[in-house]
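Technical note accompanying the year-one report. For the benefit of new consortium partners, we illustrate the data format agreed upon in the data management plan: each record pairs a sequence with a C-alpha cell string. No post-processing was applied to the example shown here.
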Amino acid sequence: MKKIYQQLFAGIVLSTLSGLSIAAETDPLVGKWKTVDDRTGYSRADVEIRKKADGSYEGIIVTTRNVPGTEKMGVCYNCPGELKNKPFIGLPFIWDFKQDPKNPREFQNGKVLDPIGGKIYKGKARLSASGKHLTLRGYVGVSVIGRSVTWIKY
C-alpha cells in the first residue's frame, strides 16, 4: 500500500511540475530575448522576461555586450534612485507591463529603463504573430514621442 501512495504522490508532483513548465512555454512573452540597438544594429544585451504573481511582466538583464570599438559597461552609473551604481547583470530593465485584455499580443502601461542614459520611460510592447519578435516602445508623455526597438526571442 505504501508503494501505491508513493507512486500516486510522484505522479501528482510530476504532473504539477509539467503543468508549470507548459504554462511557462505557452506564454510567448516569457523567456530570453536578444536586444538589438536600433541605432547601431548590434545586440547590446540579453533580457529574461518573467511573469510576476500579480500578472505583470518584468525583464532583467542577463548578459551584456559592447558595441565594437567601445568599452563594455558593467554598472548603471546614471540610473536613478536605488538602481544607481547597480551591476547591469540582474538589473530590472522593463517592468509593470500588463497584457492588453483586448489584444493578447500587446502589453501596456510598462516602464522601460535606458541603462546608458539612466532615464525611465513609459513603455508598451507588441509581439509578432510568430511570437519570435517583440517591438518595444519607450516614450515620454504620448507614444508618438519615443523610440522603438525590436528584440528577438531565442
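Partners are asked to follow this layout when depositing records. Confidence is low (pLDDT under 50) at residues 4-24.
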